[in-house]
Amino acid sequence: MTDAAGQDTAMWREVAPRVLVRTNPGFGMNTGLVIGDERVLIIDTGAGPRQGAAILAAVRELTDLPLTAVNTHAHYDHYFGNAVMAAHGVADIWATSRCAAAITERGDSQRPAVAALEAEMAAGTGGHTEILAPTRLVDGAPVDLDLGGISVTLFHLGRGHTDHDLLVGAGDVLFTGDLVEQGADPSFEDSFPKEWIRTLGKMTALEDLYSVFVPGHGEPVSMDFVATQMNKMRTAVAVTRSAMDQASVDMTKAIPILPYGPEQSRALLMRLRTLARWKWLKQ
Length: 283
Ligand SMILES: [Zn+2]
Description:
This protein is α/β, with parallel strands linked by helices. The protein has one domain (13-222): Ribonuclease Z/Hydroxyacylglutathione hydrolase-like (Metallo-beta-lactamase, Chain A), CATH 3.60.15.10. The protein has eight helices and twelve strands. The strands form two sheets. The protein has a seven-stranded mixed beta sheet. It has a five-stranded mixed beta sheet with strand order 8-9-10-11-12, with helices on one face. Strand 2 (19-23) and strand 3 form a beta hairpin. The longest helix is centred in the C-terminal third of the chain and has 23 residues, at 223-245. The structure holds zinc ion (ZN). The site of zinc ion (ZN) has 6 residues, from loops.
């Protein structure tokens, strides 16, 4: 949300005791907040220094405790606020090691995506516009962070929206990053669609642990929503693959029958084609 002057007026919403979410303007990315007795965890830092600073200011309206951050994955809207947060007392930023590597390798190439919202970040000039990769890494085993009175668990369930999505469990709330999307189609550009279905299946198997799922964008959802997203994706991948197998058929004919809008249907098709080519090249 922004007011008439373009100021970020988004509010925190409590999804469980000590667990909050705030939807940033522009890309509509959800930033999570878990408030312990001793420390506070910020989940995803925003699309640049302006958004990162707005998130920090909103956190400081609630608490003066020391801050730690997490990046769920290496897409610009989720981590371009890292530098401004690090400059304002966020000592540790956690992510998977592959996420940190992707930020280092591809961060600069993502700058143009935020031009409309964060001109300085897009240009790479001005305060806190450097690409800052996380330094605390989750690699294999889950990591528990004790925040005092509540602990969070950082874990990776397999490839999906990217090859490095990190999930954050806090109480009975699971922050899913863009593995789950509410109000829009899933984004397939850097995805591994077949494995994404499997990863969503693993997520639904956690139903004894988590009952509220906070997607990367959109409203918090239930386990049923996650299962529905999985089933829809399974259908979409099956339809697309069978179109790919029928070499004589124009594959784009599959687009209207996919359960997504034209943009993400095309993205899914392109991605499956690219992955099939990689597989073929490796043989
Ligand atoms: Zn993403």
